[in-house]
Amino acid sequence: DLIITMYNVGDMDPFRFSKSVKKMCPEIPIVLLASYSRLVHSKISGSDTSSLDYIYYWSGSMDLIIAIIKLVEDRMNADHDIFNVGVQAILLVEDNIRYYSTYLPAIYRIVLRQSSDVREALNEQQQKLCKRVRPKILMASNYTDAVELYQKYRENLLGVISDVGFVVNKGDAPES
Predict the structure, then answer these.
(1) What are phi and psi of 84, to 5 degrees?
(2) For residue 150, with 0-12 CB atoms within 10 Å meaning exposed, 13-18 middle and 19 or more buried, which class applies?
(3) 5 with 29: CB under 8 angstroms?
(4) Has this prediction a pTM greater than 0.85?
(5) DSSP strand E in 28-127: where?
(6) Does residue 8 surpass a pLDDT of 80?
(7) Which H helix or E strand runs over 158?
(8) Above 90 in pLDDT, residue 126?
(9) Which pLDDT score is estimated for 129?
(10) Among 53, 67, 141, 174, which is most buried by a count of CB atoms within 10 Å?
(11) Are 7 and 39 in contact (CB under 8 A)?
């Protein structure tokens, strides 16, 4: 299950909505989509987003929706697939919502295309296995979460993608 909510849609603001959902169903991931503007950015930055799992700026591309679904699946399956099957992972560390809203779909396009190219030469059962063992994408939006993910999965990390300029702790303001 996954809940995707939009900013400025309906009577209840997405922050109150996500808090009420998390009280009832804490395990369901909640994603906020918002179109980018300075006003929306400042409202999101000034709000309690702790009950939201992810926030993205929506540019109208369906690639972002696919990336969101894949990222949630990767997060849910990471422990099993990495520790039990030996799947590798790529860690994306980015605190800027605009940037990771762009990077994530691009990374998934590349990884899925590469997996698809390999699968063409395999039989049907091998194709299913190959699809399952594509590299998992893990994302952190602050240094603390990035280090935690790195420590947990470091034996199976293919690499880390980062601009090396990010907040230290979740909830801290990004540096300008």
Answers:
(1) -95, -35
(2) middle
(3) no
(4) no
(5) 30-34, 54-57, 89-93
(6) no
(7) strand 157-162
(8) no
(9) 66
(10) 67
(11) no
